[in-house]
Amino acid sequence: MKYMKTLLCLLLATLSLTVYGSDTGPVLNAPLITSSSISNIRQPDAQVFSSGQPSQDQLQLLQRAGIKHIVNLRPSEEITWDERAAVLALGMQYHSIPVAGAADITVENAEKLAALLSQLDGEASLLHCASGNRVGGLMAVIAAKLHGQPIEDALLEGQRWGLTGLTPVVRAKLSQP
């Protein structure tokens, strides 16, 4: 009888992990995120999304969809509400790397973003600025300067992440030694 109880407990535990996942948080619902009205939403990586600025309501959607980290590239003076407080109130982690514009698309900021992404270790995340353009710019710098990709390939990588209008500026920065 004791053997049967132990076996039953093990079976229930296995079933629980299969149905609910081994993580304590919700399973990522990527289709909910990619079909949302978040400005310029993209999914360049299985667990990492990029976009323009999400609203407070959209942050709630992201939390329900399984996002654990919000990475904001906008400086505080660009935002009229307390995004950090809203993210933390939803139980997500908030990270900030202020990138004020083209001048802040630098190797130093790219290194900060690469280190943060490495630290997050593939956990469900959203990287955003106002439009996704700065996100893409930094990702292009990461590709070229940190991973050694040719400039054109790095720009394509940046475009996958949201690089648009800053492409000429990023191209010029990547051309510098």
What does this entry look like structurally?
Strand 2, helix 4 and strand 3 form a beta-alpha-beta unit. The protein has a 4-stranded parallel sheet, sandwiched between helices. Helix content is 50%, strand content 9%. The chain is of the alpha/beta class. The protein is globular, with a radius of gyration of 19 Å. Helix 5 crosses helix 6. The chain has one domain: Protein tyrosine phosphatase superfamily (Protein-Tyrosine Phosphatase, Chain A, Alpha-Beta Complex). It has 8 helices and 4 strands, in the order H-H-E-H-E-H-E-H-E-H-H-H.
Sketch the major β-sheet.
Answer: 4 strands, parallel
Distance between the termini: 73 Å
- Sequence stretches where pLDDT stays below 50 over 5 or more residues: 1-23
Strand content: 5-15%
| Cα gyration radius (Å) | 19 Å
The CATH top-level class label: Alpha Beta
Order of helices and strands: HHEHEHEHEHHH
The percent of residues in helical segments reads 40-55%
Mean pLDDT: 89
CATH fold assignment: Protein-Tyrosine Phosphatase, Chain A
State the helix count. 8
- Total strand count, please? 4
